[in-house]
Amino acid sequence: MAEPTSTASTLTVTMPSDREIVMTRVFDALRRLVFEAHSKPEHVAQWWGPRGTTLSVCEMDFRPGGAWRYVVRESNGKESPFKGVYREIVPPERIVWTFIYDVEPYSVHETIETMIFTEQDGKTTITTTSPYPSREVRDGVAASGMEEGARETYDRLAEHLESMK
């Protein structure tokens, strides 16, 4: 397998255990900007969701205990809802939230995602760890198109971060 030519545009998805998915991506932006892009609805609405979609709902009560809800709308009108609750927020280092893809059969499986933001040489790495209750649930999430959606979403985030600089 060839090495990526640019870590700034590559999402790495691994499954380090039978119940986890870990996603890692490097962004060419300072950590404070990357964190800000995750913490304010006016930013999230610009980048969250795969290409060709819009965020028709972007509700965020960005504080521990606060709820969030996003609805991704495709060009054909199909909507995909996501929701959760912020558990821990440590600016600009970490966000821990519950995450539910609010569509059957996935909606019964809440995960607690941890996003870690680290900065080195003006670039920020986001590492998101998502544990699941079983290997079967993890594999179902992985088969749902999650990786491609995350890849496109992070590409859109990289483009939005350019506009924030």
Verbal overview:
With 165 residues, this protein is of the alpha+beta class. The chain has one domain (7-164): Alpha-D-Glucose-1,6-Bisphosphate, Chain A, domain 4 (2-Layer Sandwich), CATH 3.30.530.20. It is 27% helix and 41% strand. The protein has 4 helices and 8 strands, in the order ββααββββββαα. It has helices at 31-39, 41-47, 135-143, 146-164, and strands at residues 11-14, 20-27, 53-60, 67-74, 79-90, 94-101, 111-120, 123-131. The protein has an 8-stranded antiparallel sheet with strand order 1-2-8-7-6-5-4-3. A hairpin with a 3-residue loop joins strand 5 (79-90) and strand 6 (94-101). Helix 1 packs across helix 2 and helix 2 crosses helix 4. The longest helix has 19 residues, at 146-164. The radius of gyration is 15 Å and the shape is globular. The N and C termini lie far apart (34 Å). 20% of the residues are buried. The model is unreliable at 1-8 (pLDDT under 50).
Number of strands: 8
The residue fraction in helices comes out at: 25-40%
Query: Could you name the CATH class?
Result: Alpha Beta
Quote the distance from N terminus to C terminus.
34 Å
Q: What's the average pLDDT?
A: 92
Largest sheet: 8 strands, antiparallel
- Strand-pairing-aware structural class: alpha+beta
The amount of beta strand, in percent, is 35-45%
Order of helices and strands: EEHHEEEEEEHH
The best one-word shape is: globular
Name the poorly predicted regions.
Answer: 1-8
In spatial order, strands of the major sheet run 1-2-8-7-6-5-4-3
